[in-house]
Each structure stands twice: as structure tokens, then as C-alpha cells.
């Protein structure tokens, strides 16, 4: 019996590094899915391919989330460089500060619960 090893150029599956931002895109309807699924939620196609984002984008919206017994946290909508909008956390934004719409951000890590954590880029932070 012979075992043949196949080298794949494109990685398959969820990210293996904490700072890598990967998502699934449907090849039929181009819907973007951030959680690992077997079927596209829009067209029910099984042809989903993995894409890697560069991890840079701009802030399009921010809201402060308060829960009883927890500290308030800032949840932002970030538009990535490849045109995808996603919900995430942004480090460096305080609840009392002015909301930096259009500020440049880059990824720091992906939390264990799957929510990406971005940080304000230092060059843009001085401007705000």
C-alpha cells in the first residue's frame, strides 16, 4: 500500500493563526459568511470557498453595548479593504470619546468566541 501526500496551495478550513481573518464566500451568489457553515444561508449552495482578508479597513459605525454586571464595550462595524462589512470590537476607543467614523483600523486578534478585535492605526489616532 502506498500513501500519497497531496500539497494544497490554498488552505482549507477556519484560520489557524489568531491574527488571520478568514471567511467563506458562496461561489453562486457571492454571499459572505463569517462562521463555518455547510450551506449558504442565502441560496443553500454547498459550494463555499475560503477567502483571506488583508485585515485592514475603516470604521463605518459604532455603538456602545451595555449589559448588566459587565463593563460597557464598543462594538463597531468595519468595512474591510475587500468590501466586506463586519461587526467587531475595536481597541483604543473609549465609550466617552468621539466616535471616529472613517478611522483606519487593522486586526489584532480573533477572540475565542469568533469576534475579531481591531485596533485604531496610530497615524490616524492622532488625527481624531
From TrEMBL:
Residues 20-48 form the ChsH2 rubredoxin-like zinc ribbon domain. InterPro entries: ChsH2_Znr (IPR022002), NA-bd_OB-fold (IPR012340). This is ChsH2 rubredoxin-like zinc ribbon domain-containing protein. It comes from Streptomyces mangrovisoli. Pfam families: zf-ChsH2.
Amino acid at each position: 500500500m502506498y500513501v500519497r501526500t497531496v500539497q494544497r496551495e490554498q488552505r482549507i478550513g477556519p484560520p489557524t493563526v489568531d491574527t488571520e481573518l478568514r471567511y467563506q464566500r458562496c461561489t453562486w451568489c457571492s454571499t459572505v459568511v463569517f462562521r463555518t457553515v455547510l450551506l449558504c444561508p442565502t441560496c443553500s449552495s454547498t459550494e463555499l470557498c475560503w477567502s483571506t482578508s488583508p485585515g485592514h479597513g475603516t470604521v463605518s459605525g459604532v455603538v456602545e453595548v451595555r449589559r448588566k454586571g459587565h463593563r460597557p464595550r464598543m462594538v463597531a462595524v468595519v468595512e474591510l479593504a475587500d468590501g466586506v462589512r463586519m461587526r467587531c470590537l475595536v481597541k483604543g476607543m473609549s465609550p466617552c470619546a468621539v466616535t471616529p467614523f472613517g478611522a483606519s483600523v487593522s486586526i489584532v486578534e480573533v477572540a475565542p468566541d469568533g469576534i475579531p478585535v481591531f485596533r485604531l492605526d496610530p497615524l490616524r489616532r492622532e488625527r481624531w
